Amino acid sequence: xxxxxxxxxxxxxxxxxxxxxxxxxxxxxxxxxxxxxxxxxxxxxxxxxxxxxxxxxxxxxxxxxxxxxxxxxxxxxxxxxxxxxxxxxxxxxxxxxxxx
Length: 100
What we know:
Blueprint: H1 5-23, H2 28-43, H3 45-65, H4 78-89, H5 92-95
């Protein structure tokens, strides 16, 4: 994932343009709002979500290691973002075949 400000801004611009086109938004103010929203999400909640996902993975690995569980399930809505972050950190979760 991009870490320098220029890369983050470029990625935010691309994401904002894609979102705007999918929603049929053409007003430059709407595009600017989407760009700002991306930067705010990148700067504030995203690092927190990654930290929580990392902590959860440590706990889940301990559960699997002690054989207290053999499956991990992330439900939609509130769990979607955590599942996304955990899959980025632990590719074994995507396959459904390997245990970690």
